[in-house]
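BACKBONE GEOMETRY TOKENS
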Amino acid sequence: MPPGTRLMQEDERRATLDDLISAKKMTNDQIERLPITNTSMKMMSHRRELEEKMGRLEKAIDTFSKPKVYVQI
């Protein structure tokens, strides 16, 4: 085990993974509801923020999908 970390319990890991999956679904729904033509800077910025959030969620889902997850103490 790396120093300064602990092994995450299986039920805690599954709960976190479930939360991340539902957050990804909600973010994806928000992206799908955006208009196809983004002419305003605000809409383009909002789409970019949602896409960046989606990328972070996907990375976190990949991490918490592993059988062993170590978290910082």
Summary: The two ends are 12 Å apart (CA to CA). The beta strands are 5-7, 70-72. The longest helix spans residues 10-33. The mean pLDDT is 94.
